[in-house]
Amino acid sequence: MDASMSSLIVAVVGVLGTLVSGLLAHRGALRSKTLELRHAAQERRDERRAQERRELTETRRASYANLNQSLRHFHAALFRRYQDLAAGQADGDACGQPPPEVDDARQALRDVYAEAQMVASDEVLKTGGGVVHLLSRIQRMLDPLRREQGARETLLEEARDGLERASEGLYEVRQTMRKDLGITELPIARPDGYGVPRAHGNGRSPA
After folding, report:
1. Is the CB of residue 188 less than 8 Å from the CB of residue 179?
2. How many angstroms separate the Cα of 162 from the Cα of each of 1, 23, 59, 111, 139?
3. pLDDT at residue 14 above 60?
């Protein structure tokens, strides 16, 4: 092989090397750009999901606060109703309708609970729904007022027991909501000896 042929081969190899090197560099740049775009897209998706979680948490926080307040208000209204009936102070109210305080609290709870059903966790709805249904049952026990004396006393006793169970339920609902929001490590069930007066004790609400 003479010198001119060797020079030609070297030149061709050099040109090919340059072309291949440029092609590889271009493909590497494309790959890097693709990975960069994918990474940026993933970051946007992650940020969007994080923002949605933050918004859901804030929505739940507001809903849980309203639900907790409405449950306690309805429970307190029913407890005062029970106290009046037990003391014979409401016997003259025989219209067959719940007093405005009880009815307003029931209506408010109904609206708040309907909103909570759209955003609350399954566990909160399970626990809260149980208390809502218990309070509604207690209301039906206390109204209307015209009953035979024997049935009346039995219903008052059942209502008192129901109010005590509802008091325990209020604590469990609150703790379930706090746990769902990630702001408590306390147990869901009320600890033993949690100093809440009973409905037939010193006349205070057991809530």
Report:
1. yes
2. 108, 80, 31, 23, 10
3. yes
8 Å CB contact between 181 and 62: no
Angstrom distances, CA of residue 207 to CA of 1, 48, 70, 82, 168:
105, 40, 12, 14, 8
Which ranges of the chain does DSSP label H, i.e. alpha helix? 3-86, 100-116, 122-142, 149-180
- Mean pLDDT computed over 90-95: 54
Between CA 73 and CA 36 the distance in angstroms is 55
Rounded to whole angstroms, the Cα distance separating 176 from 174 reads 5
Of 49 and 198, the structure prediction assigns the larger pLDDT to 49
Rounded to two decimals, the pTM is 0.71
